[in-house]
Amino acid sequence: MEKMKKVKIFLGLFYLILISGFLFFFFSKFTLDEISSYQFIQANRDYFFQIKETNLILISLIFLIGSIIFVLMLGFGSPVALLGGFIFGKWIGTLIVVFGLSIGATFLYIFANYFLKDFIRDKFLHKFKNLEKKFKKNELIYFFLYRFVGGIPFQLANVLPVIFNVSIKNYLIGTFTGTMPSLFIIVSLGSGIEKIVNNNKQAPTIVDLLFSPEIYIPISFFILLILITIIIKKIFYNT
Q: What is the phi-psi region of residue 150: left when phi exceeds 0, alpha when psi lies from -120 to 50, beta otherwise?
């Protein structure tokens, strides 16, 4: 028992070291000013599109693996969804992003279920006791609703199901189907940003962005989705 605890501590520390190394490597290559500049975005848009035109399968595979690692390391996926839409467009981008984030979240769930289960149960079970009863009725349906409704930070939502003992199969299926609507909207927004960057040599103003159909249509659908999930959330979390 004592040996197993030491193994878990070692692997947990190894995971934290990987996260720190990933962040250090990324920000040693790019500064915040660089990645937020319009010129940086334009230059990399051309670079990614040249690679995509040359070998779509290779860059799709690299992006898929990168998405899995990103979610496993950091737990969230909105930047991945925006970048996926920017590079691949809304249809192919959504497919790659949903697969990548679902697999990455599932790996993170397996990790948390093995190393952090007792901690998560002690910390959160009393807050979500009503959900535990629901999951016992029909695990897959309620996990799909749990993913679709949201209302919990994505990082926490990835690991919280350990207190409900959700099967890996239902976790993967529920994550894939439940997150697809919101990810499609975010990916569509990333695709819209790419079109704007491609059509504008200079950075557009905020007003130009907001009145561009590539931007306001995904945002409008996102607001609508939020309203729908608020209604469902009241039923899901309170009954």
A: left
